[in-house]
Amino acid sequence: MAAHSQGIQTLLDAEKEAAKVVQQSRQYRTQKLKDARAEAARDLEAYKAKKEAELKEFEAKHEGVTKTNQANIDKETEEKLATLEASYRQNKDKVVKKLLDRVLLVKTELHPNLKKA
């Protein structure tokens, strides 16, 4: 009987040892996941900072070109507006006269599709 209870005790001890190993494995796995997430977050922040720096460098490099292009566009716009304003002043009297002629001088004639009944 003593051998029987000693065998049971050995099995219980082995079961406790196995439970400890399983618990340690779970803790190890959990810690590895936390470490992996933290490392991924650091890598992501480093990548983000690198891309931000590249963007700022690109903006700084092309800022002068953008300002020059904008100045040229503004100049062209002003020239076109001045041309349109001059054309308006030159032709406004003619246009008003044509509009008034069309409205006031009505020809009274029958439509060509209208037939005598």
From TrEMBL:
Residues 30-68 form a coiled coil. One of its GO terms (molecular function) is ATP hydrolysis activity. Keywords: Coiled coil, Hydrogen ion transport, Ion transport, Transport. InterPro entries: V-ATPase_G. One of its GO terms (cellular component) is vacuolar proton-transporting V-type ATPase, V1 domain. The keyword Ion transport applies. It comes from the Eukaryota. V-ATPase is a heteromultimeric enzyme made up of two complexes: the ATP-hydrolytic V1 complex and the proton translocation V0 complex. Subunit of the V1 complex of vacuolar(H+)-ATPase (V-ATPase), a multisubunit enzyme composed of a peripheral complex (V1) that hydrolyzes ATP and a membrane integral complex (V0) that translocates protons. V-ATPase is responsible for acidifying and maintaining the pH of intracellular compartments and in some cell types, is targeted to the plasma membrane, where it is responsible for acidifying the extracellular environment. Belongs to the V-ATPase G subunit family. This is V-type proton ATPase subunit G. It comes from Serendipita vermifera MAFF 305830.
